[in-house]
Amino acid sequence: MAGTASKLLILWTNAQKETVHNMVFMYSVNARLYGWWDEVTLLIWGEPARLTVEDAEVQADIARAREVGVRVIACKACAQNLGVVEQLEGLGVEVFYTGVFLTEWLKSGEKMLSI
C-alpha cells in the first residue's frame, strides 16, 4: 500500500521493570530504529506513570524513545489520580485525556500492542 504510513500504538499498563526494559522500550525503540513501523506511539496508562517519574532508568528510556521518534503520551486522568502530571510533562511526555484518542485508534483499525 504505497503512501500509507504504518502506525503502531503501544498501550503500556504494566509497571514491572523487567517488562518495561525487555519489552516496552526494547520494542518501541527498535521499531523506529529499524523502520518496522513508520510511526510508533507509546501511551502510558495507569501505574507506569508513577514508575516513570520515580525511576531514573525509565526516564532515560523515555528520553531515548523520544530521541528516535517514538511519540510518548500519557493518560491525564491517570496522571492526575497519581499526582504526576507536571513531572511527566517535565520529561517531555504529552499528557492529555486519552479516552477518546484510544477509542478512535481502536475504531480506526490501526495496530495496537497492549503491555
**H/E element sequence:** EHEHHEHHEHE
State the share of residues found in helices, binned by percent: 40-55%
Q: How many DSSP helices?
A: 6
Radius of gyration: 13 Å
Q: By helix and strand content, what is the structural category?
A: alpha/beta
Distance between the termini: 28 Å
Q: Tell how many strands the DSSP assignment holds.
A: 5
User: What do the pLDDT scores average to?
Assistant: 95
Low-confidence stretches: none
The order of strands across the largest sheet is 4-3-2-1-5
Assess the beta-strand content as a share of residues. Answer: 15-25%
Shape: globular
Largest sheet: 5 strands, parallel
Write the layout of secondary structure elements.
Elements: E1 7-12, H1 17-33, E2 39-44, H2 48-54, H3 56-67, E3 71-75, H4 76-82, H5 85-90, E4 94-96, H6 99-108, E5 111-114
Parallel strand pairs: 1-2, 1-5, 2-3, 3-4
Helix pairs in contact: 1-3, 2-3
